[in-house]
Amino acid sequence: MQNQFKALTLSYKQAPIAIREAVSLNEIGCRNLLDKISEFTDAQDVMVLSTCNRTEVYYTAVQDLSRAIIKLIAIEKGFIATKEITSYFQHITDHQQAVQHLFYVSLGLESQVVGDMQILNQVKKAYQWAADANMAGPFLHRLMHTIFFTNKQVFNQTAFFDGAASVSYATVELVEELTRGMADPRVLMIGVGEIGANVCDNFGKSKISNITIANRTHHKALELAQKTNARAIYWENVWEEMANADVVISSVPGDCFFIGQADIAQLGENAPQFFVDLSMPRSIDAAIEALPNAKVYNVDNIRNRATEALTMRMAAIPQVKEIIAEAMVEFNAWTREMAMSPALQQFKSRLEEIRQQELARYTKKLGDDQRELVEAITKNILNKIVKLPALELKAACQRGESEALLEGLSALFNLEKQEAQAIPEKF
Q: Per the database record, which ranges form the Tetrapyrrole biosynthesis glutamyl-tRNA reductase dimerisation domain (predicted)?
């Protein structure tokens, strides 16, 4: 299908954190949703992306499938009705805008902290899940590899990814600000997934050095602690350690671990003063703020922090958009070439059919050597005849004028319209 790519998106830009966590999907949820979309819709080239800041579904289809997909998300999350979440979704039905949106999201232009490099790894995982589910066709394969190549160009040619202006770095900056008046503040990091590990790495560049790490899988906490000069504790000691902390940072999903108001109230005067929740769903009760001297921060509170790195990234945005625009021009040319590929193949097949018919009529009395010679000559003639319209069509594609030529070729040789098939090109 050509020019039918769409995007269904819910992000921090239009949805509060409570709505985002209501529709947030882990890996199993994303894979389940891919299966549901495959079973109940005719969508192709489907990719499901869900992070703490967004839940999105990209797909190719003739019809607008947003209502059906939102219902499938609700089923996966166990909703009875969808009216509470539907208004927060934005549906991009324009092909070019949907392609551009995926470029912008993948390269960090749409991230809460602009240029956050974590998003590309999350996009790569989403693409892998789509491929595993056989939901990634030629169009999506080519688009994703184009995006990955464009990311390398942006990395090499601009300052957009310079510095450490990411969610994890912004977290460290926030903790530094909150503990400025403390001597040797004690920080407890709960969870060592991607974002937790990045936070610990960034603390390695900070003046704050009293870091304790807790994780259900102890060897992971131990490995990260050794790498970042922190201290690892066993998971069963996490509540005991919390009583010794000034700051608690959690990146463990709330459906796996939760710090409630009552839990902290029991700690009394030993309760931590600051809580930073990087989880989705949230794992730290917002009601803790009702306790004396307690403050709770979540991913919506960790805004773009005024750093030199962020200033450089913002200044590089026009250059990044220009590189993306150039990549989209090349990708669109490939898309148009794929549209003409079936017609050219049919054209060649029709000429080959004529060639075979004529050879059958006139080569019966020829010897083997003569038949081989005639076969070679006629094949060369056919290939040269096909090459001329192929080159002209390719040039027309570059000019955006291929449709009229395709229609003329189809009318002259009575060719049927078919969907383009192609093997994804690897970079």
A: 319-415
Q: Is 200 a catalytic residue?
A: no
pLDDT over 90 (residue 395): no
Count other C-beta atoms under 10 Å from residue 201's C-beta: 16
**Greatest distance between any 2 Cα atoms in the chain:** 106
Tally of CA atoms within 13 A in the half-sphere of 305 that contains its CB: 20
Strand partners, 11: 54
Nearest to 143 by CA among 47, 254, 12: 47
Q: What is the pLDDT of residues 22-44, one digit of tens each?
A: 999 999 999 999 999 999 999 99
Q: What distances in angstroms separate CA 69 from CA 154, 206, 211, one per listed residue?
A: 33, 44, 43
Q: What is the DSSP code (8-state) at residue 296?
A: E
At 30 the pLDDT is 97
Q: Could you tell me which residues are annotated as the binding site?
A: 51-54, 111, 116-118, 122, 191-196
Q: How many residues does the chain have?
A: 427
Structure tokens at 191: 């969870």
Which one-letter amino acid corresponds to residue 258? F
Provide the token pair at 355.
């060639």
d(CA 31, CA 28): 5
CB atoms within 10 A of CB 39: 8
Q: Is the Cβ–Cβ distance between 342 and 421 less than 8 Å?
A: yes
- pLDDT, position 249: 97
Q: CA–CA separation, 51 vs 170, rounded Å?
A: 17
Indicate which residue of 52, 200, 256, 397 is catalytic: 52
Binding residues for substrate: 51-54, 111, 116-118, 122
Q: pTM score > 0.70 for this model?
A: no
**Which residues have CB under 8 Å from 138's CB, separation 6+?**
338, 420, 421, 422, 423, 424
Binding-site residues for NADP(+), please?
A: 191-196
pLDDT single digits (tens) 215-236: 999 999 999 999 999 999 999 9
- C-alpha 395/C-alpha 333 separation (Å) is 10
